[in-house]
Amino acid sequence: MNPAHFSDAYENGHGRTVSFLLSRGVPYDDAQEVAQSAWVRGWEQLRQLREERMLVPWVNSIALNQYRHGLRKDARREAWQPAYDDVATTVLDCAAIDVGTILSTCTPKDRSLLQAHLRGDSPHEIAEREGVTPVAIRIRLLRARRSARIRCEPVLKAA
To answer: What is the C-alpha R_g of the chain?
Structure first.
């Protein structure tokens, strides 16, 4: 892919990358910044792209991975912050309740796979434990998430 083609793809695909990140719950300012960074990274790593028609999905995956890496990095940094004992607050973690509800609707096999992924295990690590390829784990995760989404929609609407 030559620079002119990449430039055209950037003009057409940057907005799609921002929209993709927004659909994953990324705040708008972060989505703009991460999308820009992902396209730069895509240009730098362009030799790894196998099919030109897959450029935008490839850059979208780079963007999502960069955002997730930033979240993990921030979480590690916050873990080292001092705890303040003089501030007594109680926070209800609604996300944990929602995750618990979603996981309760899954089959046991899907539940264990999703829990491993939520713990931060990579598809490669899960694949090693299961004795399959990382691609197989990514496909199983995709199917498990789809199945959970379909099963939990009525439960979450009722709540």
So the answer is: 19
Rounded-to-integer distance, Cα 126 and Cα 137, Å: 7
> Region 16-40: what's the mean pLDDT?
90
Name the DSSP class of 146: H
CB 136 within 8 A of CB 127: yes
Phi-psi region of 66 (alpha: psi -120 to 50; beta: other; left: phi over 0): alpha
Query: What does the pLDDT average to over 126-153?
Result: 88
Q: Which DSSP string corresponds to 75-98?
A: HHHHHTSPP-TT-------HHHHH
Q: Around Cβ 39, how many Cβ atoms within 10 Å?
A: 21
Nearest to 98 by CA among 26, 149, 143: 149
Query: Residue type at 154?
Result: P
Identify the DSSP state of 66. Answer: H
Stated pTM of the model: 0.48
Neighbours of 134 (CB within 10 A): 14
